[in-house]
Amino acid sequence: MSSNKYFKTEGPWSDAKVEILCSDTGSWRSERPVVNEEECILCGFCAIFCPIQIVKEQTNCFSSDLAFCKGCGICAQECPTDAISMISEGEFK
Description:
- It is a single chain.
- By secondary structure, the chain is an alpha+beta fold.
- The protein has a domain at 31-92: Alpha-Beta Plaits (2-Layer Sandwich).
- It has two helices and four strands.
- Strand 2 and strand 3 (62-64) form a beta hairpin.
- It is globular, with a radius of gyration of 15 Å.
- It starts with 30 loop residues before the first strand and ends in a 5-residue tail after the last strand.
């Protein structure tokens, strides 16, 4: 059992009866997903396959919450139109 006073568990999964702790990424992510909005067909595969479920539908595309994205690249790998590219964090600093 966690000693965190706000969350009863610190695992990535929940039985939907208790809140889970969702840790932010910090500065260790080496790549981030970048979406080409013109190529996105709103299929939602990126959201379905995201292991931490931080991909959300926007007005004309899906995008990741970069505060929590771990940079695994599964969203880019599963995108049928290659609308998501994994770009080095060094290009954004």
